[in-house]
């Protein structure tokens, strides 16, 4: 299922249809051509084009000194990116799966996130860490996790997760051009499933701004990344019963668009928060807290969260673990009947 873009088709000018992974490849291609400081590297991202082929053709086009392979060491990949960024380059490092980011955790937490503040603004680390994230492809315990909450807790790091080709390209370009380290999670189950129209002209999508995917007045469904097709599906099913759900795509988790969320929930009085990460310490808990703190007297029902379960990601029960359209719709019925 394809998701709607933020802007009406008439405002996009001349466009072309592309899937999400193609939009990522095109963003990298254009930024490599636009800025000679941009480098793309990681495990197998060179001539092979990466495990998901997101960098296919880029080494041939831009050269082995701009798009290249690294040793199998996530700590070295991110550590090198931090050093490059401090010295004025614009590194885009790929971690092959989000599950593999653990060895680079200290480099992100203690170096990339802190360098601006530790140096009193004299140094910055404008770098991007790209990584495929989430389930839905039967990758099992080590290829399906959604660890974004770890990184939203790191002051000094921006965290984004697109769900449409339009946003995938625009957010990646904004991340590469920005002055802060950005962790760019790519929902791999949408790589080829999500299709949409992209402008031929250059554009960026601002980090920290949510998108309204569907307008409604009865309740707000708020999500990001790979769950968005299911959120849309649930809203469409509810519409057949006369319930109009507003669907908000956060797109950015740090910073996140609190204003857009509060405006929507203030209008509808009900909120269902959706993500595929485990429920406990889920980032959506922060969103829920902000809603009740700001809008307690306006809520018509408790805020409900639909998430993954507090288990390692199961291989066999892949479809049961992920928040389906049915699970989301059932949660919506609960808040509507409260």
Q: What is the SS-derived class?
A: alpha/beta
Using the 3D structure, state the CATH architecture of the largest domain: 3-Layer(aba) Sandwich
Strand count, sense and barrel status of the largest sheet are: 7 strands, mixed
Helix content: 25-40%
Q: Please write the string of helix (H) and strand (E) elements.
A: EHEHEHEHHEHEHEEEEHEEHEHEHH
User: What is the name of the CATH class of the largest domain?
Assistant: Alpha Beta
Taken from the alpha-carbon principal axes, the silhouette is globular
Strand order, sheet with most strands: 3-2-4-5-7-6-12
**Contiguous uncertain segments of 5+ residues:** 1-6
Give the distance, in angstroms, between the N- and C-terminal Cα atoms.
Answer: 31 Å
The total of helices stands at 12
Q: Could you characterize what this model shows?
A:
It holds the Pfam family Transket_pyr. Its cofactor is thiamine diphosphate. Residues 18-193 form the Transketolase-like pyrimidine-binding domain. Keywords: Oxidoreductase, Thiamine pyrophosphate. GO terms for molecular function: oxidoreductase activity. There is one protein chain. This protein has twelve helices and 14 strands. The longest helix has 15 residues, at 20-34. 34% of the residues lie in helices and 20% in strands. A seven-stranded mixed beta sheet has the order 3-2-4-5-7-6-12, sandwiched between helices. A five-stranded mixed beta sheet has the order 9-11-10-13-14, with helices on both faces. It has helices at residues 20-34, 58-62, 74-86, 105-112, 115-118, 148-152, 165-177, 228-240, 258-268, 284-295, 318-321, 325-336; strands at 15-19, 38-42, 67-69, 90-94, 128-133, 158-160, 182-187, 195-199, 211-214, 219-223, 245-249, 252-254, 271-278, 304-308. Helix 1 (20-34) runs parallel beside helix 7. It folds into two domains: 15-199, Thiamin diphosphate (ThDP)-binding fold, Pyr/PP domains (Rossmann fold, 3-Layer(aba) Sandwich), CATH 3.40.50.970; 211-336, Rossmann fold. Helix 7 (165-177) links the parallel strand 6 and strand 7. It has 338 residues and is an alpha/beta fold. The radius of gyration is 19 Å and the shape is globular.
